Amino acid sequence: MKYEFDKVTDRSGTNSYKWDIGADELPMWVADMDFRTAPEITEAIVRRAEHGVFGYSTVPDEWYDAYVNWWKNRHGVEYKRDDLIFCTGVIPIISSCVRKLTTPAENVLIMTPVYNIFYNCIRNNGRNVRELPLDYDGREYRVDFDRLEKELSDPQTTMMLLCNPHNPIGKIWDRKTLAGIGELAYDNGVTVISDEIHCDVTDPGREYVPFASVSEKCRDNCVVCISPTKAFNLAGLQTAAAVVPDKKLRHKVWRALNTDEVAEPNAFAVQAAVAAFERGGEWLDELRQYLYENKLLAREIIERELPQIKLVPSDATYLLWLDCTSLGMTSRELWEHIRRSAGLYLSDGSVYGSPEGFLRMNIACPRSTVRDGLERLKKAVAALRP
Q1: Is residue 185 in a domain?
Q2: How high is the pLDDT of residue 33?
Q3: Which domain holds residue 133?
Q4: What is this structure's pTM?
Q5: Whole-number pLDDT of residue 181
Q6: Cα 231 vs. chain centroid, distance in angstroms?
Q7: Is residue 76 part of a domain?
C-alpha cells in the first residue's frame, strides 16, 4: 500500500472525545477513526494555516465543483451546483430541517436500530419519535413495508429520517427498497431526510445507492446529507453539505440553515473538503481495503473463538454490529461488564433503539488495535462463565 494504516497514532493530549477515557482502557465506540487523514488533505490545511489570517470565509465555486464531480464520478449521480448548501455538519442539517419542516408534536419516523443522535434531533425540538423496528431474522435486517405504510399514512407523521448506508447495522439499502420508501413517503406527504454520511465507506466492490437517484418521487421529496468527514476522518473540521434538488424545498432548507447560523464555513472547512474530493480517492480506496481486512479478521476471530457472539454481515461502515443475545444480558449490563472487566469501551446497543443484547464496535484503527480489542472481548466473555 502507498499509505500507512498500521501505524498507531497517540491521540492523548488532543482533546479527543473518543480517547477521553481511563488508564488502560481501549475506546472502540464513537464513530471516528484512529488513522491520520489523507496527507493530501493535511497539505491543504497546512497551506491554509501558513497564510496566518483566519477571517470570515465564503463558499467558493471549487467547493461546489468538488462535490458535484465526486458524486458524479464516484457514485453515478449528477447533482446541480444550485442543489448544494454548505453546512457545518450532518446533524445540524437534520436538526434544522426538523425545526423548519415540521411543527411541534408532529411525528418523525426512524427505522431502528439506528444512529442514536437521531433521537436527540427529534426530541430536543419537541417532536415525537416514531420507531419502525426493522425485521431481523438472526442474520440480516429488512423493511416491513406493510408496517412502513401504516406509519407513513398517519397524518401526524410528517418527516422520516433515513440512514443510507444504515448505522449501526452497516447495511446498504438496495434500489428497490429505497424506491418503496420514497414512493410511500411522497404519496403521504412525508419529507425524507437521507443521512448518507457513511456512503464512501463501503466494502471494496460494493457501491451505495444515492436516495435522490432512485426515482422522481425520491428526488423531489428529499434532503440529502453528505460530507467527507466519516470517510476522511474530518469530523472536527465541521464541514458538510445539504443536497436538495427540489427548488421550493431547497429554499426552506436554505432559510433553516441560515436562520440557525450553520451555513458558514470555518477557515479550514472548504479546503479540507475540496482536497478530499479532488485528491483523496486513492487514499480512500486503500482505506476501504484495509477496513475490509479488519472486518474479515474480526469475523474470523469471533467465529472461531467467540461462538456466543454473532457478527451481523454488513457491506458498509467501519462499525461491527454484534448480536450477543445468547449471553442473556441486557445491552447495558454487557457493556458495563466488558468495560469493567477488560477495559474495552464499546457502544451500548440499546441507545440505537435495538432489542437487548447488542453492541457496536468501531474497527477503524490499526490491525494491532483490532486484535487487542478482540482479545479484551474474549477476556470479558470468559469472565461470564461459572
Answers
A1: yes
A2: 98
A3: 42-279
A4: 0.97
A5: 98
A6: 9
A7: yes
